[in-house]
Specification:
The chain is an all-alpha fold and 118 residues long. The chain has helices at 4-9, 23-26, 29-37, 49-52, 61-70, 75-82, 86-95, 108-115. It has one domain (4-115). The chain is built from 8 helices and no strands. Helix 6 (75-82) packs across helix 7 (86-95).
Length: 118
Amino acid sequence: MGSLAAKTARCPAYPTTSCCAPPTSIGIPQVRRVLKQHDIPVVTQAGPNWKRFPTPQKLTDTLVIDLYTECGLSLHHIGLLTGRPGAAAGAMLRACGVQLRPAGGRSPFMRRWREGSP
């Protein structure tokens, strides 16, 4: 087992760490389409969100709903792609009446990705 520092240094191998956006989701056309549709730039450099997004992206109802329900991303992945905390996306989804998936387990996106069909 490697240290957290070693895992962070190899960020692309650990797509759910907080050091960079999940490369697995960025490369998926469906996710790129949603980001482009909502004018969200793709930020791939490593680092904490406050460095990657000096100005966090504005979350909108449709952006968060599209990423969560259409793309199947987790709240954590949405946070990594937008620079906003996953909790903010979750609060927005609840306010819109979207039922959140139970905690734990993999998101639909990660299940598809691990099966080889994102």
